[in-house]
Design a protein that fits this description.
Blueprint (H helix, E strand, L loop, with lengths): L1 E4 L6 E5 L6 E9 L8 E8 L8 H14 L5 E7 L3 H10 L2 E10 L4 E11 H8 L1
Parallel strand pairs: 4-5
Antiparallel strand pairs: 1-2, 2-3, 3-4, 5-7, 6-7
Length: 130
Amino acid sequence: MFLIKSNPDSNRYSIIEKASKKEIGHISVYRDSEENRADTRELGYANNEDYCRKGYMQEAVKAILADLFQSDIKCVWACCIQINTPSKNLIEKMGFKFVKAGVFDAEENGNEVPSFEYVMSYETFIHLYI
């Protein structure tokens, strides 16, 4: 697995399987939307159903976190829809700490869906992965 940034100004990274050179998912890194903090980012991700539960997303998230924490980023948020158990399990397995249940506003259809919000601090990342 390796990551390719769409372009230098993009916040989207394609997850590419080495053997097939096929894009199997992506991760997007967003600026902090709630407090507008310069030292905080939010992750969003998705992958092709055929490549779920094979470790690709865990490897990709770890690589993105390492890159973010090497800069001036102090914490990274990850949220998931409450019914998305595989995403919730991944976030928790990675070491993100549960903060609260919330609501995700799906802009494309105006629906609000129940979500879980998690955070990982620089200190937690260092403790778990360095």
